[in-house]
Structure formats: structure tokens, C-alpha cells
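[job 4417] fold queue: 2 targets
>>> target A
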Amino acid sequence: MSTSPPASGRLADAYDLVIFDLDGVIYLSDKAVPGAVDAVQRLHEQGRSIAYATNNASRRAAEVADLLRGLGVPAEAEEVLTSAAAAARRLADRLEPGARVLVVGAEALRQEVFDCGLTPVSSADDQPVAVVQGYGRDVGWVILAEAALAVRAGALWIATNTDRTLPSPRGALPGNGSLVAVLRTALDREPDEVIGKPEAVLFEEAVKREAAGRPVVVGDRLDTDIEGAVRAGLDSLLVLTGVSQPRDLVAAEPHRRPTYVAKDLAGLFDDVETLAISAEGTGWHVTDGRLDGHGDAMAALRTICAAAWAGTDVSDIRGATDEATTALRELGI
């Protein structure tokens, strides 16, 4: 599997598998991100291999595929990998058939546990040997208290993911990581295992399914999608339609830096030279903490990132011209 980015050509043509995150990339809640449906349809029409890897454990693969088709994306359940299914499979590998598992999360997670031959329960009094925790809109104090009691009694504790927030049209909402933090605080310990991104499990499964030799990950979060791609040794594209924004990207640590950045999924059809984080050929340059040159705001962002990642202090960057100042304002930097 190749790990070095191509030197030229459209990004979509340079890879044999595109692995999409969902929340913040394809949709926000149940509404399509502008331009996302057209971009994915275009890939399908070109015969590109596609996978969807989501940390959201509140839907099963078939439900996710139904949602995508409802938005106009021609998706199949076999293309979807969820942290709920992966967590249930991991439990089944570690536990005896029929073992009792206390489920904290949505009905989708409960069904995944059941389908893996385990017994879902809701009380510590049932003496579960494991607790699995995933996002669910109705998760509250009662089930969290049962989980705390079970873990304190010795149950294995697995989290589907630790995303602190979920993107939505109204702004960032508490994610499973915020709910995991409740138990972390109560128990004064970490989960025994986290399954979803930034762990490489979902990406590795997607690559294996498609026998892909050159996959690329597309996500909206530096701390899950992009860090997960780095851990898996895969190239990645950050789109600015969800959680992570330009300021976050500029300040990103090495293990959370994408290969490319684009405003949205239309970037899949741009040239890799345009999308790559670089100070060369962008029309912009950073000198003495000032941005100068000309071009669009995204090109300016790539230049600023290249400077920051090379060690230049851009914490108080200013525009040397009105055009530069406008680009910085557009980026929120």
C-alpha cells in the first residue's frame, strides 16, 4: 500500500479507494452537506471504490445506507463501517458466547451486541462481564450509574469512540467522548479499549474489504479522522464542513496533519498540487508574521499551514495588503 502522495493529477484519480467520514462530511444530523451528494455521485459514476467509516454508534450499517440513499447517495450497507459493529465484534472475540454485556448507547449498539452472540443487559445487577459505551441521544444518569457500578465490579469497559462533540446545523453538540468523560471522572480511569477513530480499526477493515493499494481518508476532524489516517499510514483530505476549522489546522500537531485540505468535497476533483499543504506555487507567502501575495483564501490557508508547520510563529499573523486581510478574515484567522 502506497503512503507517498502523488505529484500531480486530480485527487480522485490518484487513489483506488476513498474512505469517507459521515458526520460533518456527507451530512450534518440528517441533512446533506452542500455539494456532498453531487461529489459522491460523481465518484460512483466514475466507478470509484467508496467506503464510509463512522464513529457514530447510533445507527447500524443498513440504517446508514438507507439514510445516504434518502439524501441521494447510491450507498450499500456493505460500504459502511460503524464503530458499533466493530466494538461488538471485538467483544465477541474476547468473551465467551452468550456473555452478558451492559450496553450504554442506542438500540443500534444493543442489536450489534446481540447479533454477535452476546447477551445485552441494562443493569449491573445482571453481573455483566463487559460494558460497551457508544453515543445515544437518550443516554442518561441511570444507565451511566449502572455502567459505573459494573466497571467498578470488574467489568471490561470498551468505548466505541471518544469524539467530544458531534457536528450539527446548530453547532457542535456533546458526543460520546463527553459521555465517556462522565464515567472517566466517576471511575478515575480510562476505558480499557477505544475502537473507533483515531484507532486504525475501521480504516484497516475498509482497506481489507476492497483490497485497496492506494486509499485516501476524507474527514472533518483532526483528532479522529486525520489522526486515524496518520496512524494507519494513509493519505488524508481535511474538509472544512464540520468540526475542525482553519485555526485548528494551523495549530495541528504532526500526528494530526492532513496531506490535503479543501473547503468541501468539490476538492476531490481538484489537482493534488493545489490541495497539498505547501508554501510553493500558492500565490501567497508569509514573512515576518505577515501574509502577502494574492489568490483565494484556501491557498492562503495552505501557505500559512506550511509556514506554521515549519516552525514560523503565525499566532498573530496580519495581512500585508487588503487582499491578504480579507483572506485572513474569511478563514477566521
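>>> target B
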Amino acid sequence: MTNYSGRRGFLLGGAVLGAGALVSACTSNEPAAAPASAAAAPSGPAGANDAPGTAVTIGFSAPAADHGWIAAIAKNAQSAAGRYSDVTFKPVEPTNDINQQISAVESLIQAKVNALVILPNDGQQLNQVARAAMDAGIPVINLDRVFPDKLSYRTWIGGDNYGMGVAAGHFIGDKLKSSGASNPVIVEIQGIATLPLTQDRSKGFADALKTYGFSVTAQQDAKFTVESGTQVAANLLQAHKKIDAIWNHDDDQGIGVLAAIKEAGRDEFFMVGGAGSANAMREIQSGSSVLQATVTYSPTMAASAIRLARLIAQNKGMSDLMENEVPQSITLASETITKDNVARYLPLGFES
């Protein structure tokens, strides 16, 4: 969900609780399904930095909520801001139009907000307006999709697309190796194949599988939509009469993938999802689905971005670190959610 080099691409993995706790003590343009509700950001443990401080206004700009993960981004940001009596949250109208987002960010600069959290539709195309904010003395917290110019943001926070692929590859590789599989048929359903975020996910997946002596048998993209997920999965199921494992990059499009699988009556394989949606977690929790795991890319990163913006605007650092200032870059880990740990993560899942 840009310069599409960072996205979600829906939990913070090893940092899903860790990042939230750390910050509080001081988370793809993907067109798709209709907007839906999402879990509120985790509160995290209280710390000295949570005590009221200097009043600050935080501006917020993100794409339109036409996808479950993006909808959850906005909800997490607003929820995090609402936890602080010293924060005034100033969001602008979400949009998928580049020029409209630029104008919206310019309005926040003119309003002289104390910090800006921006998830750009396109990092390259919004780079200049982000730089204008920084030049005006407004620190920019670049959320997920990275601006190419480091002078255009104070801090970047986002997920690890390559790490998502690695996590999925290890889960599938280990499970197949343990079962004694030989030359397994491994199918990969991507989001949008041309995006760097997708390519990063695929590379991580291939690299991890290689450590088990396995490789991807078939790969096709499903455009991050439920409809394409259904169609692509149906085609792959028809083309491969036997499949051992499937990795679907995106839990939102995974609704369509699972629908095609159920329609075909196929269950000889297991599947891994991507992002950490609530519906995917419920499938995993049921124990009766081919979906046995999902690898995280959580929209709770938006809550962490708001917390970082507050700390930066108040000239505070992260109290769990020795340094006096918030780091320049924070990459959140991707964790594997299975039936064994799904109860821990379900409250953080977003609705597709």
C-alpha cells in the first residue's frame, strides 16, 4: 500500500508489541476491497514519555481508505493521537490523487503544524512537498512508502517487505521439509508484480525457500483485489492438479483466494497469507482452513508514527534507548502468526 519501496504490504511482527511499547515508553498502493473497520491501535505500557508535555499539533495525510489495510492506517493514527491530552490531531482528506495529496500537505504546512505524518501515495511524487515541510522546520515522519530524498523526512517507519517473504518462505520450507516433501509444488500469488514492494517480498520468499532446496513452481499477481484473487487462484488451481503450498502476499486479496479454493473443493495443500488481517487470523484460529499462517505487516505502524511525531515535536527521545533523539529509521519485523499464537495477535488484526 509511492514510491512503492515500502508498504504493508497489514502487525509489526516481532515488533508488533515491541515497537508500540518502545515508542510509548519513549507498524502498497493497493487498490482493492471496500473500506472496512479495523482494530484500534494497541495502547502499550505507560512510560515517562506518556506524561503530558508541550502541546503539539500533528498533521496527518494518507491515501483514501479503499483497502482494508489503508483504512486501518487512518484508524490507528487517530486512535493513537486520541490517547494524548497534549496532541491536537489534524488529518486532511484522504485521497488517491497525487495533486490533491500535495495540496493537502501544503495546507498543513501553511497551518504550521508541529509535525507531519505522511503516508504518500507515491514517495517520488510527494518528495518535493515533504522537503518543503522539512525546510519550513516541520519534522516529517515518513510512514511506510519512503521518500527518496532523506532530507525530506526526519524519521521513516515502515514494514519489512523482504522480511515478509523470508518469514513465509521459512514457514513453508520448514513444514515441507519436515514432512519429507520432494520437489514440492509451491505457488505464489503476488499483489502487483511490477511494484518494488512485491519484488522485495518475492525475493525474500525465494531466498528463504532456497535454504531448504525448494523453489517457486508458479507465480502470478492478483492486483491486491478480492476479485482478482478469486480469478488468479482459480486459474492456478486448474493449472496444477496437485499443490503442496501457497503463499498469498495479501490478506485482503486472500478473501478471494480462499473463496476460489473452497469453490474448487481443494485441501491437499496449506496456505500462508500476508499482512495480518482479522479475517485471516480467524481462519487460522478455526483450525479447519487451508490457511495455516499469515506473516505480518501491520497498520499499527501508523500508531507508532503518531507517537514518534509527538516525541520529535516535544524534543524527546525514546526512553528505552540511550540516545537523546528518536532514530532516523525504524524497520518493523515480520512475524509469523499461527494457530499457536493467533490469540495474541487477533486484537491487532484489521478487517478486510
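[job 4417] complete. Note on B: The chain has two domains: 15-158+299-332, 161-296.
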